[in-house]
Structures
1.
Amino acid sequence: MTLISNLINGISLGSVYAIIALGYTMVYGIAKMLNFAHGDVIMVGAYISYLSTTALNVPPLLSVLIAMAVCTVLGVVIEGLAYRPLRKASSLAVLITAIGVSYFLQNAALLIWGSAPKSFSSIVPFDSISLFGGDLIITSEAIVTVITCIVIMILLNLFTKKGKMGKAMRAVSEDKDAAQLMGINTNFTISMTFAIGSALAAVAGVLLCSAYPTLTPTIGSMPGIKAFTAAVFGGIGSIPGAMLGGILLGVIEIFATSYISSQLSDAILFAILIIVLLVKPTGLLGKAVKEKV
Amino acid sequence: MKKYRDLSKYARTNLKAYGLVIIAFAILFPLQSAGMLSNSLNGQLIPICVYIVLAISLNLTVGISGELSLGHAGFMSVGAFSGVIAAASLQDAVSFEPLRLVFVIITGGIFAGIAGLLIGIPVLRLRGDYLAIVTLAFGEIIKNIINCLYVGIDGSGLHFSVKNTSSLGMSGGRIILNGPQGAVGITKIASFTAGFVLILFTLFIVINLIYSRSGRAITAIRDNRIAAESVGISITKYKLTAFITSAALAGMAGALYAMNFSTIAAKKFDFNTSILILVFVVLGGMGNILGSIIATTVLYILPEMLREIGDYRMLIYAIVLILVMLLTNSSRAKQMAVSLETKIKNILRKNKNGSGEVTDNG
Amino acid sequence: MKKSVRIASLIVSAFMVLTALAGCGKSEGGDSTAIKIGSIGPTTGGNAIYGQAVKNAAEIAVEEINALDSDIKFEFNFQDDESDAEKSVNAYNNLKDWGMQILMGTVTTTPCVAVSTESNADNIFTLTPSASSTDVIGGQPDADGNIAIPRKSNVFQMCFTDPNQGTASADYIKDQNLGTKIAVIYNNGDAYSTGIYQKFDAEAKILGLDIVSVTTFPSDDTKDFTAQLNAAKNAGADLLFLPIYYTPASLILAQANSMKYEPKIFGVDGMDGILTVDNFDTSLAEGVMLLTPFSADAEDEKTQSFVAKYKEKYGDTPNQFAADAYDCIYALYEACKAKGITSDMSAEDICTALTEQFTDPSFVFNGLTGTDITWKDTGEVSKEPKGMVIKNGVYVGM
């Protein structure tokens, strides 16, 4: 029973990683950049949702929409101001800029909302499910997170495979210059990618804080790194890969804590990641790109 | 001036980098000895030296060898803690502090070099972002392991444990490393001179490596791996050479760093510290050794200078970081800067030619 | 590439000149008869909450003292260290340039160990509100009787030492017979948490308490504690000892609740503040017991006036860090008054006088965090921890 209980806890933690990783992988897949500020957009989303429910008394679901709207705007603004001028620069320059944006968001949040932690009320309106006379408990947040995660994954997959915009995104991802020659507005396409990625970050923020209800200006950074790891684990750029990577990461973390050593759980987690990458260097579901000679 | 232009690129790089470091030391050292530096600047000298060494060594991996590493602080950590253990073991045997410091730094370098070898063999098979995440992972693993390491020393030698201090089984000794509480009670033996010498040593190693046969092989691999391989360059060998050298130098810097504070904890050497060093490298320019030195110094002093503005300090730091990256890397900003420079030059030239008129008018 | 370096250094140096100029205009304003108290703690980064609390409370205390009709006036300067030893030493050097005569800090433990070594070498009197490790004051043998750092005679603490709390908690649990099977969850990436746990474990063995499960987590950023809670639950623990800060503790309470696991919970002074978290469902903390020297709900006039002022000025309820900092400033004030310290004395002379005063058994201080507070030669504070239990969202004495 403990095993199943740990498995469920692992999946619910993993689904939070997965939902963050989806945003990471989406931006990476199309814009080919590691957006280290993604974790901090999540934090902003959570704060917006928190403030709109506590200060404005907005119903929880509407607060999620407000958070998504704010984050979408934030994502597009960040992309336009900080990343667009660097389109032709080296990927490392963009990486460092993203880190600068991450510092900026964290410190701005600290100045605006203060350092004191806030307690986030879960947006999930129903109770946890209790099975086997209370031996096995599945929290409602876990169920909602897993379902949301699957829905988002399917929608994203459909969107990039079928829609016109999605096709444009894939074209930009394959070859930016060629896409431009074919009449695709690459700047607009990349902006759209950031808009979607940031809206996802808002959802992730709300779900993260529903499951783990403490809200501080730094809540995004650690899950951000873990989610980045998850995205690479699953094969960065691959949407199902992000989901798989996230869930596996959560399960491994809980199992390592429970059965091996709570002190070394992070070390074990990263060691498994390394082994997987050595065996399969592009991640679990990543495509190997043939090198042109 | 003409003579300087005639020098080879190798000699010029040499001259500039060594020259800058030696001049800076020649100015700062007498000021420090005479007690004329502010406490604030005085306290920053050794950390700046440490970060310069770290930035140059990371530049070897990222800039010269073209491998993105996000775990440089891990090597620093290995160097720091092996250095601390060496320092405690040698406390009585070597009473002359500078000599002890040399031993400590060498120990740090050796252990970090070994860590570099162990990590480099599997890791260097990967490329790009996958390499980045694996180095990040190794950095975190090193942090986690040192966090549950307990080391003590007594009459019968060193004792190690991964459980707690009482399982060290010591009699009347001293705890060197106390798990997450880190190493406390370090005797501070670092000096500015040692930092200066370490920078010179690093420059010597790195510049010689870059302009040697190995260095040309390393840059060849970076620029076109397949072509390099096809002319018979052993990829693994040269990549590993650069990686281990970089790790060992980082370890030496780590050991010096540890000797500058009475306490250090494993928590310090995390992902954020690795990123900080990477920022120095990228801002200074990939493969640009002189750039690394300047960028490190400026970016290290900047947050300290910003203390005056209080709460907004880190926010301003972030804005400066973003602006600098935009202005130095965006093609439009570069054009603007160039045109601005020529304009200023033109104005200056005009002023020079007709300086008489200008003063008349004024 | 070279051009870019040139541009970069140009921009940065321009900023430096600007800030230097801005600084020139601002640093005036302190009057020369005030004693300069420096303070260091994290106001940015993950531990910002603790530094902010200390800064805010100390500012209130300094304001109050300066409004008194007394010869002693204080000038206060707080510097950020991001809870990092290296930056803390930088901040300390910066304060020395400012002319600091007394150091009230630093807030967190590891930076304080580093800074107190510096202040010991410079002979600047140091009183930390909250750095609780014995390595801060030095001269304390660890569990096996080994001494790592000699006593730093100028360093004193306002908070309990970690071992003190560990022992006191174990004794309290034994005396009150609070639990038979004890589980511990602590932060093994944190000196404070590990320090308390180690001593608690040692004392529990002596007292014959049954510790059935010990699990850890790596940092205060940790979100998921279900594995740790499951371990405790499966071991049948009826008492959960949490020597941790209140941010992770609030998550543990919430997760235990959703797991329907309801052990008794016992915390230490880091747990204080849990009721002040905005929007926190206090019913989760119902029945939580903790040893803390301060409670914001205390009825006495001193506490109430401080809490009211703090709320008015900063909008939050002060926690124990704030209370300790407030007490630090007042203790310094009383000691300065007793020794007739003036602002023209050197930091060394002030240090000698204050050390004498603080180790004088007749120096008794009454503050927010206790009455009849005295200090030992070792630098430790001697005050009574109060056992508190949370009932209906407020602290009640046990």
2.
Amino acid sequence: MSAKETGVTAETVKKIARLSRLHVEEDRLAHLADEMNGILAWIEQLQEVDVEGVEPMTSAVEMAAPLREDKITDGAVREKVLANAPKSEAGYFVVPRSVE
Amino acid sequence: MTDFTNLTLEGALAGLKAKDFTSLEITEAHIKACEDASELNAFITTDYDNARAAAKASDEKLAKGDGGLLEGAPLGVKDLFCTEGVRTTAGSKILGDFTPQYESTVTSNMKRDGMVMLGKLNLDEFAMGSANETSYFGPVINPWKVDDNLVPGGSSGGSASAVAARICLGATATDTGGSIRQPASFTGTVGIKPTYGRCSRWGVVAFASSLDQAGPITRTVKDSAIMLQSMAGYDPKDSTSINEALPDFMAACDKGVKGLKIGIPKEYTMDGMPSDIEELWQQGIKWLEEAGAEIVHVSLPHTKYALPAYYIVAPAEASSNLARYDGMRYGNRVAGEDLNDTYERTRADGFGKEVRRRIMIGTYVLSAGYYDAYYLRAQKVRARIAQDFKNAWEKCDALLAPTCPSAAFPVGRPVNDPVQMYLNDIFTVTANLAGLPAMSVPASLDKDGLPLGLQIIGRALDEETVFAAGAALEKAADFKAEPEKWWSA
């Protein structure tokens, strides 16, 4: 699908907000759609660039992915890991029920 | 008596070493200056007690003739760097009272070298902005002023404002699309973004991982070299950290530009750019020529596509990086009807408007069916932009361009179109996309008396030439202007 065929609708915004895990009130959807369309229309100029045969850039500086020995270098810091938890108990994070 | 806040970092370090004054003395002077400048809103969190303790510890080392590169210098840290035991907010509500249990590698290096940290500096929320107006903790005010209060630029607005107001000797900053160089230009300070991978990203709150890079904001080029020497270095905890020996950045400042070829990229101009900036650029060319550089004209034909490519790549990476803020392990949580509702309400409440906008754009361009049209194409355009630079390096050693298309603008200027705000980064974002080192040097005042910067962009890993050319510009420009101190209590 080419970017040109797209156009963000209120329905799309609802879907994107859902994927983004962002609560959006119904009455904001149309405005957000306009805003996204404005930005996407500006981005559309990238279609002019000839990218035939160009490899996508994957890293800013050419270097091989470094490997290291597979051994534990950190850990056993449960208190520290839990120190900023909104809710914790008995060494665990406490989260809302996710399975009924 | 010396006013210790008038010292450069270089001067302060020399004075400390010579025992002309103590770290505690200059730290107290800066604490007082910080307190007087509360109106600038440069700090989110101050940490004066620990600063005094660190100053005393530095004085003990200095008394014995010991001490590291930054020993005893009172500095500020952008509140994007995690600091052990000191609240770190990233300028966002969502992190709540998050208090890191670890230290970022960059600040850890600086503490190893004797930094006295005055506190954590304000910034755009998650470093997303060009005016420091998206911070949950309110806008930062530029010490430079014409009638209205002006923005200091962003996202490292607190860092730039604090250095320009002389309330810290230097500050850390980060640059994803221009967030070091644009505020440096707006505040008459020096800022360098080194080559991607020079400074470890470990412990720096992530925005767009393939673009984020830390660097200093200071009053002089030499001060930037001193700070970067401490901040940079290989770190196995960041898989994109460069495993190469660090050059001597301070020595590079004295190299001069004799025999260097400086490229002038003709595309670094835009409609509606004030004539002052065009004139300053021409003046900069003359300065470098007079200092012995050879000027060559080059073309970077894909420049105009850098910003739109950035506004795909950066939001895409941000949407992924910011997925971690779910209210479960740290930060604020807003209870909802079920787990998903809790996530959605936590994130809608905790993230500001610009951050939500970028998460949505990023999610959209990465979503099924659109990936090739947007993200993949943007990464190919990015390769084109990087190739433009590689072609330029056949003809020259560094590039000279304006840093920004405008001087600082008033706080609260209405932004009806987000794209208008994005254009602030039009000349800076290319170096991020290509991973190149780039520096902004204050060079003159515009017709309203506001500072303007010139930018030097160098080859990957060649910060030395950037420092050499930056220092030559600094010397020729002889920029001594200072903001009038209107904020003092």
